[in-house]
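Entry for the shared binder. Reason: the reviewer on the internal report wants the predicted structure included alongside the sequence.
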Amino acid sequence: MSSIEQSVDVNVPIRTAYNQWTQFESFPEFMEGVESIKQLSDTRTAWVVEIAGVRREFEAEITEQHPDERVAWKSLDKPHQAGVVTFHHLGPDTTRVTLQMEYDPEGVVETVGDWLQLVRLRVRGDLERFKTFVESRGDETGAWRGEVPGPHEHGGGAAGTGGVADHSPGDRGPGEHHGTGTGGGHGFGEPVPPRTVGQPYPADPDLPPPGGEPLPPAGRRSGEEPPLTPGPRI
């Protein structure tokens, strides 16, 4: 099994970056080798991709989704893969988008491609093109703001909730149903990790946690009151 982790800093608010990532049918506009994605439901998509000259078709399921924080998924067919995208507030108009993915190369061609880091380079390029795509527009093409509880929440496998805040033409693609899908699930026979794929996240202690709140000043934990200012000496 191969692991990938890549990040890109996007000069748009965290809400804009997250909203655009929920528009899966737009992925072919900036993802190399993704021929098409069809939204089957709030939590299921059908993909047609090409990697190292090998064409694959598979379905994927969203296993966890929280607005402005994270989107996790797993494939339901070969090629087996699972991943999570997290969104980190760096400033009012700057967001770090981090993609972590695990996948199982199939066949000699795909294994060789993995050794040549073809997939890693492609993922890096995809994130850079996502950055260009969303920054050039200045806003998102649509948004889906529903919640999909992860397998670690509510006993796992909970139904996706609605809570859709944005009803734009691009919401999850045409003709979608809001908040009716099912969450939870497993990738490679195991639950998609609730907060990361691979090593504990974040590895960089200076990276803000997923979501819209910036880190507190250095030396003070989140929620901790600032130190008192000494009064005048009597």
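Summary line for the report: Confidence is low (pLDDT under 50) at residues 156-170, 173-205, 215-222.
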